[in-house]
C-alpha cells in the first residue's frame, strides 16, 4: 500500500487516512472470508449429497466467493463501529503505522497480486458466475499471502524483511 499512498514523516500529516485504513481492513476481511468460505465449501461437499452436484473445486470456489462478500460486509460494519466517533488523528495514526510497517506492505502487495491473478482465472472459467470470480480472487489473495511467507522465509536471514526490531537495543537501563 505504501506504493500508492505517500507516508509522511508525522502521523498528523498523513492524508487519506480513512481510505488507507478502510482499504486495509476490507482487504483483510476478504482474505478471512475466502478461507472460511473455502473450508465451508469443502465441508459441505463432503457432508451433503446435494452439494455434490458441482465438482469439488467449483463448490469450494463458489463458497469462497460468498464468504468473501459476507465477511467483507461484516468487517465494514465492524470498522465503522470501532472507529465511530474517533478523532481524525486516530485514523491518521493507524494508517501511518500501516504504511510504516514494511512486512505488512509486502503482504498487501502479494495478496493483491494473487487476487488479480485469481480473479482473472476465475473469470476465464465458464459457469461460475460472480461467486466464482469473487471466490477465485479471494483464494488467489490467500495464495499470495502464503507465497510471500514462503518467499520471505527462503530468502535467507540477511534478506528477510524484519518483522520486529531488536528490543534489547531499545531498553533503557537506569
Describe this structure in words.
It comes from Tuber melanosporum (strain Mel28) (Perigord black truffle). The chain crosses the membrane at residues 56-79. Pfam families: DUF1757. This protein has 174 residues and is mostly helical. The protein has 5 helices and no strands. The termini are far apart. It has one domain (11-170). It is 70% helix and 0% strand. The radius of gyration is 19 Å and the shape is globular. Residues 170-174 have low confidence and may be disordered.
What's the total count of β strands?
Answer: 0
Distance between the termini: 40 Å
Query: Low-confidence parts, pLDDT < 50 over ≥5 residues?
Result: 170-174
DSSP helical segment count: 5
Approximately how much helix is present in the residues?
Answer: 55-70%
Rounded to an integer, what's the Rg over CA atoms?
19 Å
Proportion of strand residues: under 5%
H and E string: HHHHH
InterPro entries: DUF1757
Transmembrane segments: 56-79
Keywords: Membrane, Transmembrane, Transmembrane helix
Protein name: (Perigord truffle) hypothetical protein
Amino acid at each position: 500500500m505504501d506504493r500508492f499512498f505517500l507516508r509522511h514523516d508525522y502521523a498528523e500529516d498523513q492524508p487519506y487516512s480513512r481510505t488507507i485504513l478502510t482499504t486495509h481492513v476490507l482487504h483483510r476481511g476478504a482474505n478471512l472470508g475466502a478461507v472460511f468460505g473455502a473450508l465451508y465449501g469443502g465441508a459441505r461437499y463432503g457432508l451433503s449429497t446435494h452439494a455434490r452436484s458441482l465438482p469439488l473445486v467449483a463448490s469450494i470456489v463458489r463458497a469462497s466467493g460468498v464468504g468473501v462478500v459476507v465477511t467483507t460486509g461484516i468487517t465494514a460494519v465492524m470498522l465503522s463501529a470501532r472507529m465511530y466517533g474517533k478523532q481524525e488523528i486516530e485514523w491518521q495514526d493507524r494508517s501511518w503505522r500501516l504504511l510504516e510497517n514494511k512486512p505488512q506492505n509486502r503482504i498487501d502487495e502479494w495478496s493483491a497480486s494473487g487476487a488479480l491473478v485469481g480473479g482473472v482465472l476465475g473469470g476465464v472459467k465458464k459457469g461460475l458466475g460472480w461467486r466464482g470470480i469473487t471466490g477465485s480472487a479471494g483464494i488467489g489473495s490467500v495464495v499470495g499471502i502464503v507465497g510471500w511467507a514462503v518467499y520471505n522465509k527462503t530468502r535467507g536471514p540477511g534478506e528477510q524483511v524484519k518483522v520486529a526490531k531488536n528490543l534489547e537495543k531499545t531498553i533503557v537501563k537506569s
